[in-house]
Amino acid sequence: MNLSPHQNDNTSTVHSSAQPRADEGLLDYSHEPSWTQSNLLVHCEKPFNAEPPLPALVNAGQITPTDIFFKRNHGPIPDISLENHQIYIGVQRNTPDIEWKVISMRDIINKWPKATVTATIQCAGNRRDGLAAVKEVSGVIWKSGAVSTAAWSGARLCDVIRDVADIPADDLSRMLRDFHVSFEADDHVCEDVCYGGSIPFRKAMDPLGDVILAYEMNGQPLAREHGFPLRVIVPGFIGARSVKFLKKIIVQPQESTLFFQRRDYKIFAPT
Question: Which of 64, 91, 165, 234 could form a disulfide with 148 if both were Cys (CB 3.0 to 4.6 A apart)?
Fold first, then answer.
């Protein structure tokens, strides 16, 4: 989607326009972080997917140290500038048009109170090795270490949407019942135009839902592999919904149409 630059207090309306997805052979892995950790079990290097040995995870206690927190990626890890990164927040009502507003990382950090939520993230494929022992399955063959807990700090998503999205009170009750919030990453993957997913709007707007736009992990700025400069943290949902490298937040009448929401991370009952 090509968007022209906006001032932070301006709203523009644009149409969605799909960009071609990346060919797997053309994905650029030349700017990856240096993977020197010998304390992780590496399942794949491109994209980088690794987990800690279970004894190390258990011995770490309640909060998983950042260096052994499991790493799940679907493509190259983007090299994003904190100062230049912008977040597009859109509302799609009953037309294809999306009303966009744009905020900066400095807005996220300075304009909203910083909340800290201790949350466990688990990859939906954790312990897939048990399934693979019975029958061939697709996906990373994780053992039991694709689950970790951290203290995440950032702005509450409900506060940001409330202040930026300009949703009339008369529409709010209907949208809480029927709408979704879609998240899109500033990255490149081979399955679609980017990584992304969505959650129900009511979860996003629940002050007790603890959904935050995190820019810190365990008291430090997010590491690149964990979503720098911004990721959403959705407690109680599979890790796939805690989208990293966050670029777009869209309030819309349907769940995300991206591959990772519609075709992956789904349970399809047998016919």
Answer: 64
Q: Which two tokens stand for residue 113?
A: 């109170």
Which CATH superfamily groups domain 38-77+85-262? Oxidoreductase, molybdopterin-binding domain (3.90.420.10)
Pick from 247, 233, 258, 237: nearest CA to 115: 233
Pick from 149, 146, 182: nearest CA to 72? 146
Tokens (6 digits) for 215: 């820019």
- Exposed, middle or buried, 136 (CB in 10 Å: 0-12/13-18/19+)? exposed
Distance, in Å, from the CA atom of 121 to the CA atom of 14, rounded to the nearest integer, reads: 34
Q: Where are the domains of the chain?
A: 38-77+85-262
What backbone phi and psi angles, to 5 degrees, belong to 86?
-120, 150
pLDDT tens sequence for the chain (271 residues):
333 333 344 333 333 333 444 556 689 999 999 877 668 999 999 999 999 999 999 999 999 999 999 999 999 999 999 999 999 999 998 778 899 999 999 999 999 999 999 999 999 999 999 999 999 988 999 999 999 999 999 999 999 999 999 899 999 999 999 999 999 999 999 998 998 999 999 999 999 999 999 999 999 999 999 999 999 999 999 999 999 999 999 999 999 988 777 777 666 666 5
Helices (H), ranges, 28-156: 54-59, 105-111, 128-132
User: How distant, in Å, are the alpha carbons of 15, 74, 167, 253 from that of 91?
Assistant: 12, 27, 8, 9
- Which amino acid, 247? K
